[in-house]
Amino acid sequence: MRVVSGIQPTGRPHWGNYFGAIRQYIQLQDEKQAFYFIANLHALTSVRDPQVMSDYTLNAAIDLLALGLDPQRAVLFVQSHVPEISELCWLLLSGTSMGLLERCVSYKDKVEKGLATVAGLFTYPVLQAADILAYDSDVVPVGQDQTQHIEVCRDIAQAFNHQFGEVFVLPRAQVLADSAKVPGTDGEKMSKSYNNTIEIFESPKEMRKKVMRIATDSRPMEEPKEPADDHLYQLYSLFVGPAEREAMAAKYRAGGFGYGEVKKAIADAAETFFAEAHRRRAELVADPDQVRAILADGAAKARTKASEVLTRAQTACGIKF
Ligand code: ADP
Ligand code: TRP
User: Fold this and answer.
1) In testing the pocket of ligand 1, which one of 145, 182, 186, 191 has its CB within 8 Å of the most ligand atoms?
2) Average pLDDT estimate for 145-165
3) Which residues contact 59 (CB under 8 A, 6 or more apart)?
4) Which of 32, 192, 264, 301 is an active site residue?
5) What is the DSSP secondary structure assignment for residue 123, as one 8-state letter?
6) Nearest C-alpha to atom 7 of ligand 1 is from which residue?
7) Is 38 domain-assigned?
8) pLDDT tens by residue, 177-221
9) Does the model's pTM come out above 0.90?
């Protein structure tokens, strides 16, 4: 069983990214053969500054390693270091109907958010299909927003197989639990696009400042509150075990305490939770050659598999003979 997933290097990871995606990726490395890559080719449609692109890419790798991705267990690489992907993408593009891509909601969403209407954004699901099919992947762990792309990938693979024989393995999406849930500083879903994020690797001081500024309702302190509906309680729950969670829930139900106290508890718990990752990150930043070596090793492993699949596809459609 092989899992594959890509992470776009479009910013620094926030708490939502961690609990909604990265944590699950890391857990999966123990269960299945995992291929994870930094999707820099996908990010090219939005990141147009070369320095920012290379910084974000290397930092994304450092962040994943610091958070516990183990290169002995999972294959970690940069998408563009596997040129077979771009070749395979063209083979897939030539058989992908415009209608299939026109039905994808992500293109419209991204254009609405201000991204340029470039061809690469429109054909982005085909590049994603190449990413998945190149490694004979069975399972693709993704957030809910990406499930349509996995369906598109299956359609593209089926069309190719139908025309040229059984070349591609059909993958399935594994929707990450809780992938839509982490609230941001305004109580809405945490997201880069809403400017309400708290980054995993900001300094504890900055993190604390942001936590103390999280929006709250104006109910009086004395009033008992239902914890499950409250975004501060939801955030606190991410960082602590069941006993602490229960103790906090009891305080909510009893009333007579302020949100300031919960915020302080969140900041303390978050700092402890990510302390080890912060320490590991500092070590990795001090040794970028080690990170580059890990990525080179990952790309070599990924290319071995991708070139096998590419040859299969090229032979099937008659361009390799
Ligand atoms: P953003 O919304 O900040 O641009 P991305 O779309 O790049 O985040 O998300 C990358 C991954 O992190 C996706 O799998 C997504 O489902 C997950 N994710 C992002 N924000 C949250 C959140 N607030 N809660 C849970 N998961 C999230
Ligand atoms: N499109 C995904 C996103 O924006 C990133 C991605 C690129 C990906 N290629 C992939 C995810 C292949 C899963 C499999 O989050």
Assistant:
1) 191
2) 97
3) 9, 12
4) 192
5) T
6) 8
7) yes
8) 765 589 999 999 999 889 999 999 999 999 999 999 999 987 777
9) yes
